[in-house]
Amino acid sequence: MQQTTVEVAHQAFSHFTHGLATGEWNPFLDMLSEDFTFWFPVGSYHGLNVGKHRAREFFEYASEAFKPGLSVTLERVTSSETTVVFEFRDEGWLRGEPYKNRIAVSFDVRGNQICAYREYFGSDGKSN
């Protein structure tokens, strides 16, 4: 039985937040289509990135930057027939400095896979 767009996206988001918390990205990466693309707003991965190999590099890079991991608080989910947007706050450490942020990630769903990801964020400033 085919899962709905929202069910697939929620499963992927669960794997995504697990990756942010632990650095274990394989369950999330396993849900990506072979032609997966992602868009990131800044840094070395700024703009459009293509391929699961590029996604693996990106998420492993994120895990290195955010050791020991990020905690996530989901605030809102919005969906259409093919896209689900998750708005959340995350908190942890960025290269040893306190980190808090507000994020929106958009997952495009095709079948039981995520075929595209876009990320948008704005800082909540440093933790006290």
Automatic annotation (TrEMBL):
* Residue ranges annotated for the SnoaL-like domain, each copy included: 15-116
Q: Which domain of life is it from?
A: Bacteria
Family matches, as InterPro entries: NTF2-like_dom_sf, SnoaL-like
Which Gene3D superfamilies does this UniProt record tie to the protein?
A: 3.10.450.50
Pfam families named among the record's database cross-references: SnoaL_2 (PF12680)
Output this protein's name.
Nuclear transport factor 2 family protein
